[in-house]
Write a structure and sequence with these properties.
This protein is α+β, with helices and mostly antiparallel strands. It has a domain of 139 residues: Coagulation Factor XIII, subunit A, domain 1 (Coagulation Factor XIII, Chain A, domain 1). The strands form two sheets. Strands 1, 2, 4, 7 and 8 form a five-stranded antiparallel beta sheet that branches. Strands 3-10-9-5-6 form a five-stranded mixed beta sheet, with helices on one face. A hairpin with a 2-residue loop joins strand 5 and strand 6. The protein is elongated and about 65 Å long. Keywords: Cytoplasm. Its main location: cytoplasm. One of its GO terms (molecular function) is Rho GDP-dissociation inhibitor activity. Belongs to the Rho GDI family.
Length: 215
């Protein structure tokens, strides 16, 4: 599979309209190619508008919310977790995406998922600086090199959390496949976190296999 085909598969299957945040952030003298304003600058815009100030504060866009080096990545994706009410007590399936060694092992060691159960993806990430808009999670699943599924979920638009804490997003529940054919072999997955502008914040590969029970 060529890299061009992979990139095509990871493109959004829909083109959402710009969020209110994106429109607002780009309306104040925005010119294509111009560097975006910082979260601090946007926090100070229209400061006299109380309702707008409250809305921005709910997104973490407040004066003094950011400090320090802004040359690093806007977003750090920390974990991806598979959550299911059918998981045995104490069992947790979570990927540490902040650890390069852990990411490298994901593709080699398939995760075991019980067939025919409800589960959902939970992602935890930290906004380090600036404003992010229209961020989404895209997941392409293949079996023997053939695409069998694509998951696409919106995270939304955010500013840095005033408390410095990460954000957590729970996606809509899905049901894992079932049956003897579904259980045979393993599935490869390519996951990506990307925003409206095509900026990629995380991109990794992992694998899973289906079984009659959780392991």
């Amino acid at each position: 599979m060529s890299s061009d085909n992979i990139e095509d598969e990871l493109k959004p299957s829909f083109t959402p309209g710009k969020s209110i945040l994106a429109v607002y952030c780009r309306s104040d003298g925005y010119k294509p190619g111009a560097p975006p304003k910082s979260a601090e600058e946007y926090a100070k815009l229209d400061a006299e508008d109380e309702s707008l100030a409250r809305w921005k504060a709910s997104l973490g866009i407040v004066p003094g919310a950011t400090s320090g080096d802004t040359s690093g990545p806007k977003v750090t994706v920390l974990t991806l977790e598979l959550v299911s009410p059918t998981l045995p007590p104490g069992k947790k399936i979570a990927f540490n995406l902040a650890d390069p060694n852990a990411i490298a092992s994901l593709k080699k060691t398939p995760v075991v998922i019980k067939e025919g159960v409800e589960y959902n993806v939970r992602i935890t990430f930290k906004v380090n600086h600036s404003i992010i808009s229209g961020v989404r999670y895209i997941q392409v699943v293949k079996r023997s090199g053939i695409k069998v599924d694509k998951l696409e979920q919106m995270l939304g638009s955010y500013g840095p959390n005033p408390t410095g804490e990460p954000y957590t997003k729970n996606f809509e529940p899905e049901e894992s496949p079932s049956g003897m054919i579904a259980r045979s072999g393993s599935y490869s997955v390519r996951s990506r976190v990307v925003d409206d502008d095509g900026e990629v914040y995380a991109d990794w590969e992992w694998s899973f296999k289906l079984a009659k029970e959780w392991e």
